[in-house]
Amino acid sequence: MIRQLILWLCPVAPARHRRGTAAIEFALILPIIALLFTALFDLGYLAYETMEVQAAAEAGAQYAAKNTWNAGAITAAVTSATGMSGISAVPAPTQFCACPTGTTLSPATCGSTCSGGGTTGTYGQISAQKQHWTVLPYPTLPQPFIIAGQAIRRLK
């Protein structure tokens, strides 16, 4: 009996004592592989939804730049920009005046002169957001996770 147990445990045991090993190893590794594929799906879908939300904000900003300012129409452009449901224009679209300074915008009074000699520009800030639910609960992510996108365009 002990000899049979040793032959079964020994890696150099005859082939007839190693039958079923692959099935046992597969059964042990399958849950780990399934968990990894599910997490990969979650990450990929989160990336896809993030791109869609940003595209919706960009579409709203493009609409604002091409047309006269109408917050309701811009909101409609954001919500209907992609085929994905659940995207909202939150917070609401806003207008502000600013002076471009390098790669940033410095808030300024509308109609005033900027430090570079030009006049202030009117800009629109359009935001979009969507709730994202993951397949698995992750300890660091709240459920639902809010995905946000933002676009700023010069209007005048």
Mind explaining what this structure looks like?
This protein is an alpha+beta fold. It has one domain (19-154). It has helices spanning 2-9, 21-66, 71-79; strands at 94-101, 104-107, 121-132, 145-154. Strands 2-1-3-4 form a four-stranded antiparallel β-sheet, covered by helices on one side. A hairpin with a 2-residue loop joins β1 and β2 (104-107). The longest helix has 46 residues, at 21-66.
Measured distance between first and last alpha carbons: 90 Å
Low-confidence stretches: none
Question: Proportion of β residues?
Answer: 15-25%
Radius of gyration: 29 Å
Number of helices: 3
Taken together, the total number of domains comes to 1
Q: Assembly state here? A: single chain
Overall form: elongated
User: Order of helices and strands, N to C?
Assistant: HHHEEEE
**Which structural class best describes the helix and strand composition?**
alpha+beta
Summarize the structure.
The protein is α+β, with helices and mostly antiparallel strands and 156 residues long. It has helices spanning 2-9, 21-66, 71-79, and strands at 94-101, 104-107, 121-132, 145-154.
Topology:
Layout: H1 2-9, H2 21-66, H3 71-79, E1 94-101, E2 104-107, E3 121-132, E4 145-154
Antiparallel strand pairs: 1-2, 1-3, 3-4
Attribute tags:
alpha+beta, 156 residues
